[in-house]
Amino acid sequence: MKKKITFASIAAVAVAGYIGLIALSSAHGTDQALSSERQTAGPSKSITIWRDPGCGCCDTYADYLEERGYEVDRVDDRNFVTRSIEAGVPKEGIGCHLAQIDGYYVSGLVPADIIERLVTDRPAIDGIALPGMPANAPGMALEKTGILKTYAFGEGGVSVYSNE
């Protein structure tokens, strides 16, 4: 009887070990796949937005970015204008909020495709700005319509980044 119990115990341990080995190698393969996916995934889609807590268009803009796959961290900040100036945004370029993504600042209701170009091309600038609150910009309109002029800013001064 003891030999049957011992054999059954050894068999159970062997089967459990085999299942554990399969699970471990499967998890290892998943880790490798996730690591490869991260390497080819491209620029960050995580963005922080500092905004005036009473600004409804900032929430609409954040929703617009989330619908396009961004992970948005909304931070209420009544002093976002001061934060914008400290970040280097020219006073004339201050929008209704300040955002930061992948090492760049984004001031105003900049369309997602322009942000994606910024973090993909990685120009030697501090950020981009869409001054004011244009009625045809995301956050004010459901979708961008017409032409929006976005400016680049940084050590080299201010220049047109996109006019589309």
From TrEMBL:
Stated name of the protein: Metal-binding protein
Keywords per UniProt: Signal
Signal peptide extent: 1-27
InterPro entries (alphabetical): DUF411 (IPR007332)
